[in-house]
Amino acid sequence: MTEDARDPAGYAAAIEAARDRLIAFAAGCTDEQWRAAPLDGDPRPVAVVVDHVAHSYEYMSGWIRQAVAGQPVQVSEDVVDGLNAEHAAESAAVGQAEAAEHLRRSGADICALVAGLSAADLAAGDGLVGRFAQIAIRHADNHRTDIEAALAASGLRPA
Question: pTM (2 decimals)?
Fold first, then answer.
């Protein structure tokens, strides 16, 4: 991960902008696109992937709070995979309005949390808090661009 020298307000603004791009993308999906699973190797439909970003804001917020409080944060690929699998099973029928509201709510929460941090807080957990802020920015944009490209390649969305 590259070094990112943003302050807390800059991170929060970037998270909000990425979240808003994902909300706008989701709002433009047809029902066929919303229910498609266009990503190679990922059986989740667009609906679940979009809502997954909102869900990830919630668990990342918890981890940020733990790290800032000086508590150990147990994050691993297995932990994240488990959270993702649980979310996919619980959100298979999520609608566009519901996912957008989830993104607005959880995105606003993580933005407020990050904006209220100090520079020292960003360094908490040996820099883990700052890395979570960076991930929150990239996560929404990466999923959105991957889905857009996959939908275009499948002919479900103009390139």
Answer: 0.91
